[in-house]
Amino acid sequence: MPNVSNDMKNIQQPSGGKDGAPALTLLILVLGLLLSACAPVGPDFVKPEIDAAAQWSEPETQNLSIASPDLARWWEVFNDPVLNELVEIARRNNNTLEIAGLRVLEARAQLGIAVGSQYPQSQLAVGDATYLSPPENSGVTSNYWQYGLGLTAAWEIDFWGKFRRGIESADAAFMASMAAYNQAQVILTALVVDTYAISRILEEQLWYARENVALQQQSYNIAEALFRNGETSELDMQQAYTLLLSTKATIPNLKIQLKQTRNVLSTLLGQVPGTVNTMLADTKGIPIIPTDVSIGLPADMLRRRPDVRQAELLAMSQNARIGVARADLFPRFSLAGSIGLASGGPGNSSFGNLFGADALAYSIGGSVAWPVLNYGRIKNSVRVQDARLQQALVNYRETVLQAARETENAMAAFIGSLEQTTLLADTVASAKRSNELSTVRYREGFSDYLRVLDSQRSLFTQQQRYITIQGNTVSSLVALYKSLGGGWEGQAGGPYLDPKTLETMQKRTDWGNLIKTGLEEPEQKGVFRRVDW
């Protein structure tokens, strides 16, 4: 941008009837430049073509269908009021989600900066008072004051679309921040549901451990009584005692894991550890898997996932930066001017003359700047932006592939876990019956204690496996809903930010109306957009 500060004191208002002719000529020239401005330089964004699979590789099953799903509040399929409340609290209080929302506000302000760049980029109100003491050989025999007061402005005309490309880039970056917020919602919801399920699983495992301790205590009492009566050896009693202590030893570790998991859940809710204990005490039980899960088609998943949309928007934003860099290869046309009052000089340095009729001074002019010898720096800058665009496009393709992989993996895990759950349920029933029979036969003296030990050890192991696979089924379903990109569509009016946070920010900084409207996409489009004051 050329230097537009001019010495107004040395430019006096001309006299005569044709004073406005030069200014009128310049104004016509500027209007001609504005009207003939070409389309923005640089490539227009072309969304990369991705060949999405027409169908999933996993066939439809009794529990999975390709019907169009409603995933806005997918966690409600578990019909768990406590879980529903936890998700709502997390969406209001989670700190990571709030940071993502504040980044949306930041991107909106960055967009405001880009919009402001298409207007006169420099405006200054200037004033000065200078006391001069000239040398004696200058012919001026007295000291005097000089005064000045005025305005200066400079405007680089967006002839090549540099600033329009900048707005285009900031627009896409702003929408990408919205997509990032939506992705944060998806991740947070999945984390809350998954952590809640783990907590319930640990509660079930703890309950079964205590039940097995009670069962093994009874067996130990029988073995001890038989030993005291001389009917069995001490070995049976010691083996029973060893198994009992081994099972008891699992309880402290389960308690530790349960407490840690609840602390994680409290943190996800933006609350201090231990907060959720009362809420979780109201109900028990692992979330129940729905009988039918709708997943739609691969194309639906790609359209829904916020991270895919974010990757596309980031590529769009980077695409516009090529135009910003390429515009530097061409001449810059600028308009500069100043208007003000000037007075003071040898023999008359009165401040009151500053507001006299003959104190007006102004200047107006245009300039052209063209970096003709830049040693390839501008071309290489364009190449840098182009390489970054290609990286963004590759990242978009990779995001699409990863989205498909995550969904396919979650589907496979869900289907496999359901099959394992059915098998392990029968295994637990069989192990329980084996334990009953071996205990009766041992008590009546028809078998040794080794069979009792084996059956009780097997029962505890199979029960723990059964609870674990139930948890894996819930986790795989949560992963499936997450991979489908559900859980953000119900957000209305932009990201949720705590009203107290917004109030604090408004008191600390003048956000104007942006604190209310900055989380929504601006409706105004076009070449010249209204700035955010």
Please characterize this protein's 3D structure.
This protein is an alpha+beta fold and 533 residues long. The chain has helices at residues 21-35, 81-93, 95-116, 162-228, 234-268, 277-280, 298-304, 306-326, 377-443, 449-483, 499-508, 514-517, and strands at 64-65, 122-132, 144-156, 293-294, 332-343, 360-369. It has 2 domains: 1-36 and 124-157 and 332-369, no CATH class; 64-118 and 158-331 and 375-517, Outer membrane efflux proteins (OEP) (Up-down Bundle), CATH 1.20.1600.10. The chain has a 4-stranded antiparallel beta sheet with strand order 2-3-5-6, covered by helices on one side. It has a two-stranded parallel ribbon with strand order 1-4. It is elongated. The two termini are 24 Å apart. The relative contact order is 0.17. The model is unreliable at 1-18 (pLDDT under 50).
Task: Provide a concise account of the structure shown.
This protein is an alpha+beta fold. The protein contains twelve helices and six strands.
Blueprint of the fold:
Elements: H1 21-35, E1 64-65, H2 81-93, H3 95-116, E2 122-132, E3 144-156, H4 162-228, H5 234-268, H6 277-280, E4 293-294, H7 298-304, H8 306-326, E5 332-343, E6 360-369, H9 377-443, H10 449-483, H11 499-508, H12 514-517
Parallel strand pairs: 1-4
Antiparallel strand pairs: 2-3, 3-5, 5-6
Helix pairs in contact: 2-4, 3-4, 4-5, 4-8, 4-10, 5-10, 8-9, 9-10
